[in-house]
Amino acid sequence: MVKICCIGAGYVGGPTMAVIALKCPDIEVVVVDIAEPRINAWNSDHLPIYEPGLDEVVKECRGRNLFFSTDVEKHVCEADIVFVSVNTPTKTQGLGAGKAADLTYWESAARMIADVSKSDKIVVEKSTVPVKTAEAIERILTHNNKGINFNILSNPEFLAEGTAIKDLFNPDRVLIGGRETPEGLKAIEALKDVYAHWVPVDRILCTNLWSAELSKLAANAFLAQRISSVNAMSALCEATGADVSQVSHAIGTDSRIGPKFLGASVGFGGSCFQKDILNLVYICECNGLPEVANYWKQVVKVNDYQKNRFVNRVVSSMFNTVSTKKIAILGFAFKADTGDTRETPAIDVCKGLLGDKARLSIYDPQVPESQITRDLSMKKYDWDHPAHLQPYSPTCIKEVQVVSDAYQAVKDAHGICILTEWDEFKNLDYQKVYDNMQKPAFIFDGRNVVDVKKLREIGFIVYSIGKPLDSWLKDMPAVA
């Protein structure tokens, strides 16, 4: 039986290995992590991450050919294929701080693999890593190989949170990069055979190592670029009276552009987009391409601009101050159908409102209070380090209340900010919401989920990203 071990039981490692175990009953899959609470959660009825369909997959395979363990060295030693899916956070200090990827955890994993291995192995990059990481890992392994052969492959993950299981079941493509040597090509075929259990062979793309590594960064950069482009248009729409939804639909019907990722919002978030673009910027700068670096840097700048613009719109609309006013925050996750809050726009929006001394009442159906408190207490980029290494202040933010119900959040609020597109926010009884709010009652829709016309008829003053402005707002521009 082929044995696979995955180092890292996070958002990529856990779901990916669960699906491999489900689709390949003849392969033993073990997910290892040094964080005991996380592994305990994977072995319980309450998985550490929320993802539609994940529960069913894990429960079907766990104990059969899918296992979760803290005995990292044992399972790495026994594996034929080792996936490495550890964090690659943005560096917070030193060379490349704020842009370059911190490969501390990757290097540590590589050294451990070299130390404990007693047989030849295929080592697979599953984390998003900078171009040429494989070369660095290769050097570590070959200088500590004790006569053991290691073949390095890049197999970046393209799943989207919220649809991860669906994406893994039916991927647009599986990308495998390796050395173009006899040994490298043999390793590519071995990994290709795993995916071929359920993925059509014509969707399994094989490239050299550097192309595979760069393709992941490029894919995320292109997707984020589309979001920043439509968000830039949303500001222009508000200024001219155009409707960004109509503009998006019009350009999305062009087959060369397509309709996806053209929804205006308060900004993009998630674990990859900003991190990968900043990484791309750093690589461009290191390779003497400042013009290219500045081009991609602008995608992040527009995203920051959109979040600041939203906060400024809230404050300026409410008589230029939210001091001591209760603002309900509906949604904290960076998108619907996930509990992930990494780089969620909600963090910057909440901090911006708190900076003007607002009182926040936050509700999200999948994000626990402990996570929200930690996110609002943490410095930028610290979230992407393992939990046990995250600096965390136990002091709760005094002006933040986390509640378990949307109606509780909005009770007596002066304004509502919708920051995640959860379906339940579309279906709230807004007459009831209005009746229980301070007047005038404001709704700031950062995801374009509400029926603006209907809400205005109820009596709300509504701001919806990229939509024609409420007459109340027209003389209150969202400027810093």
Automatic annotation (TrEMBL):
Domain of life: Eukaryota
Cited Pfam families: UDPG_MGDP_dh, UDPG_MGDP_dh_C, UDPG_MGDP_dh_N
Protein keywords: NAD, Oxidoreductase
Reactions catalysed: UDP-alpha-D-glucose + 2 NAD(+) + H2O = UDP-alpha-D-glucuronate + 2 NADH + 3 H(+)
EC numbers on record: 1.1.1.22
InterPro entries linked to this entry: 6-PGluconate_DH-like_C_sf (IPR008927), NAD(P)-bd_dom_sf (IPR036291), UDP-Glc/GDP-Man (IPR017476), UDP-Glc/GDP-Man_DH_C (IPR014027), UDP-Glc/GDP-Man_DH_C_sf (IPR036220), UDP-Glc/GDP-Man_DH_dimer (IPR014026), UDP-Glc/GDP-Man_DH_N (IPR001732), UDPglc_DH_euk (IPR028356)
Protein name: UDP-glucose 6-dehydrogenase
